[in-house]
């Protein structure tokens, strides 16, 4: 392929285009100060995902425990009940009753002492015991930090396209977590959303609260830039 | 072991990826790429940070058989696209930025300064009309005067792709400038 010369150097470039390109400013290198600042901010932010990663790991362990517990409960509780109630049941009911419609209902009442001991197909399907055992385990709830992260991540994704919805998500975060671990991040994002919506007064008020709550925050510079950009 | 920024290859799979090291080696490349993709000066630092936050999140899924600079450039494209969408909502910001830009011609009089300002505005509008990938190649070749083989190496694309993107970018740029002239009059 024939080498092409830049328009600025080629002889047949239209004059008006060459004039335009003469006014262009080549990309500038990253200065040392900005590089250092950027690296520091990056490393400061890096600490958060690491903590969140740990929480997700904890969450997964908890979920694993819940699932394991559920399976174990489903497999062994009916057997246990069967063992403890078998004499009474076998005395009252002739087995088997495979197509009894009551067996298919997953209500907790369905696994009463009388039914649990019946050796039918339905009785060994662990629907009701499994459900009730999950509800009884508090560790099934997601951790606060992972839930907080989910909400803030959702708000972040909405920020450019729908700042109002982003703000609503951040407000939901504030209601759900009045003592949030990620309060600083939330407030910074809220200020940005307010500015995007053109609600500068409210943004200023919230920024003042933010500064009072987190003086000297690593996000202070970013906050300043948000207002600077908005006023330009 | 760390790769060299110039080569950008991660040929050894046991290389440990560290976002801090990547920042040290590639922040200049990212910074320049963001400029070439049209991120406004006032937003460059935020965009740089956005890129490396994405890098940190996705480092685990990085395909080490690809070139680091290519992967980073892909992230720059998405970040720049987001900034471009925002800039459309804040057109006045770009205008003010151009007005704030210091005139590097010390002898320029007000009239010359106005002409230069108008030229820069048109240049930016012409570049805005380009698809981002073409814009990057166009700016690298026409403004940063980087030779086509070096662009191909940097972006890890065939030289033919560089030329085809450049060809399309030139056509789109010329058309955009012609349209501006029709709508707002010719150059002074």
Structure description:
The complex is a heterodimer of chains A (232) and B (188). With 232 residues, chain A is mostly helical. Chain A folds into 2 domains: 59-138, no CATH class; 144-231. Chain A contains 9 helices and no strands. Chain A has helices at 15-22, 32-92, 113-116, 127-135, 144-159, 163-176, 183-196, 200-213, 220-231. In chain A, helix 2 packs across helix 4 (127-135) and helix 5 packs antiparallel against helix 6 (163-176). Chain A is elongated, with a radius of gyration of 31 Å. The model of chain A is unreliable at 82-142 (pLDDT under 50). Chain B has 188 residues and is mainly α. Chain B folds into 2 domains: 15-101, RNA polymerase sigma factor, region 2, helix turn helix motif (Rna Polymerase Sigma Factor, Chain: A), CATH 1.10.1740.10; 118-188, Arc Repressor Mutant, subunit A (Orthogonal Bundle), CATH 1.10.10. Chain B is built from 8 helices and no strands. In chain B, helix 7 (148-155) packs across helix 8 (159-184). The radius of gyration of chain B is 18 Å and the shape is globular. The termini of chain B are far apart. At the A-B interface, helix 1, helix 2 and helix 9 of A face helix 1, helix 2, helix 3, helix 4 and helix 5 of B.
């Amino acid at each position: 392929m024939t080498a092409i010369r830049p328009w600025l150097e080629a002889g047949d470039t239209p004059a008006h285009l060459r004039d335009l390109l003469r006014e262009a400013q080549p990309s500038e290198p990253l200065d040392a100060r900005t590089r250092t600042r950027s690296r520091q901010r990056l490393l400061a932010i890096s600490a958060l995902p690491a903590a969140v990663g740990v929480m997700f790991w904890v969450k997964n362990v908890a979920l694993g425990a819940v699932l394991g517990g559920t399976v174990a409960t489903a497999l062994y509780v009916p057997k246990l009940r069967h063992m403890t109630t078998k004499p009474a049941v076998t005395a009252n009911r002739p087995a088997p009753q495979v197509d009894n419609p009551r067996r298919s209902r997953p209500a907790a009442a369905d696994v009463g002492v009388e039914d649990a001991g019946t050796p039918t197909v339905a009785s060994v399907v662990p629907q009701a015991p499994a459900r009730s055992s999950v509800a009884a385990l508090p560790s099934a709830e997601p951790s606060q930090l992972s839930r907080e992260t989910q909400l803030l991540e959702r708000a972040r994704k909405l920020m450019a396209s729908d700042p109002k919805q982003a703000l609503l998500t951040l407000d939901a975060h504030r209601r759900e977590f009045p003592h949030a671990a990620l309060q600083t991040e939330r407030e910074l994002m809220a200020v940005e959303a307010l500015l995007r919506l053109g609600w500068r007064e409210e943004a200023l008020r919230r920024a003042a609260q933010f500064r009072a709550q987190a003086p000297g925050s690593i996000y202070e510079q970013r906050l300043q830039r948000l207002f600077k950009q908005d006023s330009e | 072991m760390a790769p060299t920024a110039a080569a950008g290859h991660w040929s050894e799979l046991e290389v440990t990826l560290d976002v801090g090291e990547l920042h040290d080696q590639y922040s200049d490349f990212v910074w320049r790429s963001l400029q070439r993709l049209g991120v406004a000066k006032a937003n460059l630092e935020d965009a740089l940070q956005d890129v490396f936050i994405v890098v940190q999140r996705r480092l685990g899924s990085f395909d080490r058989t690809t070139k680091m600079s290519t992967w980073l450039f892909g992230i720059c494209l998405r970040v720049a696209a987001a900034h471009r969408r925002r800039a459309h909502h804040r057109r006045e910001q770009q205008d003010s930025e151009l007005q704030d830009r210091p005139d590097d011609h010390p002898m320029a009089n007000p009239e010359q300064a106005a002409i230069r300002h108008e030229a820069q505005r048109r240049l930016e509008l012409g570049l805005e009309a380009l698809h981002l990938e073409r814009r990057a190649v166009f700016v690298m070749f026409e403004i940063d005067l980087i030779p086509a083989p070096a662009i191909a190496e940097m972006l890890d694309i065939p030289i033919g792709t560089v030329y085809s993107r450049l060809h399309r970018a030139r056509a789109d740029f010329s058309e955009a400038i012609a349209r501006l002239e029709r709508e707002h009059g010719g150059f002074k």
